[in-house]
Amino acid sequence: MADPYEVDDQGTPAVEAESVAESDPAAEEALRRQVDATLRFMALSTIVGLVIIAILAIAVSSIRGVMILVGIIYLLTSAAAYWYLRRTFNARLERGVPVAAPSADDAPPSS
């Protein structure tokens, strides 16, 4: 298989891109489930973090203002990361999951 990052002396790709990429529906569905699970876990961890920050802000009155600021920054950065990952994952899913040629690792063990 040719190196997909190889370029000629003028900087153009030396390997032609495949015009029609084969897609593996089972791999695509597995990737979609994994993406959904990752995004759900990220949302859950954000909620847990905000609850902990809120409890600390209520329990320790001397640092309440700082904890509110930390909570706002945490919420904004978590929302930005969620948006970025969702967009990136969806773009990857739209490109499709290419069908990989079987490798030596896929072969059954010989005894």
Fold and architecture overview:
This protein has about 110 residues and is mainly alpha-helical. The chain has a domain at about 25-95. The chain contains two helices and no strands. The protein has helices at about 25-60, 65-95. Helix 1 (about 25-60) packs antiparallel against helix 2. The radius of gyration is 23 Å and the shape is elongated.
| Percentage of residues in helical conformation | 55-70%
Mean pLDDT: 81
Number of strands: 0
**Main sheet?**
none
Class based on secondary structure composition and strand pairing: mainly alpha
Distance N to C terminus = 30 Å
**Percent of residues in beta strands:** under 5%
Helical region count? Answer: 2
Query: What shape does the CA trace take?
Result: elongated
The helix-strand sequence is HH
Low-confidence spans: none
What is the radius of gyration?
23 Å
Defining traits:
mainly alpha; 111 residues; elongated; 2 helices; 0% strand
